Amino acid sequence: MTKSEEKLTCDSVKLPPLCVRVLIGPNLACESTQAPVAPPILPLTVLQFTYLMWLARNLGSVTSALTHFTDFGINPFTTEFAERSISLAEYSGDNITESSKSLLKDLFCAILRVNIKIEGYALSFAVAGSSSIHELQVDDYVKRNTMILERTGHLRRIAVWASSNGCIQPFVEIYIRERKIVIQTRILQFNIEEWSAYDVKRFEWGVLESLIESWIKSVKTSFEYFFASEKQLCEEIFRGIVPDIEDICYEVIVQDYRTQVFNMIYILSFSNPPPDKIFLILDLYQTLDLFLNKTGFIAKPIDPSEATVHNQLLAVLADKISSNLSIFEKVLLYHESSVIYVGPVDPLPRYVMHYLCQLCEHKSTLRKLSLPKLPSIDEDDLILYSEELKGQSELSRHAIWIIMVIMSNIEGKAKLCENGSAGHFFAMKNIGYIVHEIAVHQGLKEVIGYDYYDKLIQKLDHAKFNYLRLELEEIIKMRDYGGE
C-alpha cells in the first residue's frame, strides 16, 4: 500500500488499494522517486462524490471526510459538490433519513466555516484622538467576492431544501452559531473597553473625552464594515423561506454586541461634560440613532419592551444635550467683561462662533430634538429680539439669539472705549469676523437664514462707515491744525 493509500484509512474506515487508486486518481496514488509536488485542485468526480458520502457516514461528519479530500488537492467546495449533495437529499423524496439530514447539516456548517481558512484582507482606520492604525481582518462573507456568492447560493439551496422538508430549525441554529463566532472574533479586534458608572465619574474629563471618541469611532466602524454585510448575507440565504426568518437570524447574531453598545451608552450618560462639550453628547446620540437605524431594531425589536428602552436611552441623551445648550446660553448672557482687546479679534466672539459653527454641523440631529427655552432678556431688548426671532425654527432661534447676544456684547465693549475711533474699529473688526465665519460655514448660514445674514452685512457696513467717518474727521482736524 502506498503512502497516499494509507492516508485514506482510519480505524473505522478501510478501503482496498484498488478503490483508493480509482477514487483519488492514479497520479496521486502512485509512488514516485521525484520530489513531491503540490497536487492540483480537482473537482469531484461522480465516483469521488459517492465515496465521500459513504466516508462521511462512517466517520460521522462531512467535515472529517472533507479533510481526506482536501489533503489530496481535491476541492469539494465546488458547485458540482453542493448540487450533488442537495440532489442526493432531494432524490430521497419522502424517505428522508436522519443520516441525510446530518449529512447536509455538516455540509452547511462546513461551507460556513471554510472562509476561516482563507486569509481576509485588512481594513485600516484611524481612531479619533489616536495616532494608531487598527487593522481589521474581514472574513470572506464580508468581501462578497465571486467565490463567496457561489457559496451563498449553496447555503440558500440547502436552506430551501430544509424548509420544504420541515427541518429548517437546526440549520438556522447552525448559521446563527457560526456567524456569531465570526462577528465576535471581528469585534474583539477593536479592543473596546468597558467601563462602569464609577469609572465614568472618576475619570478626568480630558481622559474620558479621548476614550469616548475612540469608542464612538470603533462602534461606527464595526457596523459600517460588518453589520451591513451580515444583514445582506442573512437576506440572501433565508429571504422568502420562512416569514421574517432573515430578520430574526440577523438580530440574534448581533444581539450580544447590541446589548454591549446600549449598556455603554447608558453608562456614558452619567458623565457631566462642560457646556462646550455638548458635541460629544451629540456624537453619542448620533451613534445610537445610527446604530438603531442601521440594524433595524426600532422597526422590528425582538422584545417589544426593547423599543421602549431604546427610546428612553435616546431621551436621556436628548435631555443632556438640551441641558448643556441651556447652560451655555445662560453663561453667555450673563458674561461680563470690560476688557478691550487690541488684538485682531476679541476672544469671546472667536470662542462663541467656533462653538456655533460646530453646533450647526449637527443640525440634522438638533432639528429632531426639543431644544430648551431661550433665557430671559432685558425688556429694552425684548422687542428687537422678538422681531428677529419671529417665524424661525427652534434651531434657528437659538443660533440667531447667540449671535445677537455676541453682537450686543461687542457694541457694549465698543462704547467703553474712550477714543470713539478705537471703539468703532473694535466693533468693525469683531463684526467682520462674525460675518466671515458665517460666510465660510454654509451650515451656519443655512440655519440662521439668508435674510438675517444680509442684516449682519448691513451692520458690518454701518460699522465700517462709522469708523471711516471718524477717521476722516481726525484727518481733517489734523490738516486744519497743521494749517494754522
TrEMBL record:
Per UniProt, what is one Pfam family of this protein?
Exo70_C
Query: In its UniProt record, which GO terms are filed under biological process?
Result: exocytosis; protein transport
Sample GO molecular function, one term: phosphatidylinositol-4,5-bisphosphate binding
Could you tell me the keywords of this UniProt record?
Exocytosis, Protein transport, Transport
Per UniProt, residues of the Exocyst complex subunit Exo70 C-terminal domain are 214-469
Q: Which GO terms describe its cellular component?
A: exocyst
PANTHER family per UniProt? EXOCYST COMPLEX PROTEIN EXO70 (PTHR12542), EXOCYST SUBUNIT EXO70 FAMILY PROTEIN (PTHR12542:SF181)
Tell me the function of this protein.
Answer: Component of the exocyst complex.
Family per similarity comment: Belongs to the EXO70 family.
Name of the protein in question? Exocyst subunit Exo70 family protein
The species is Mikania micrantha
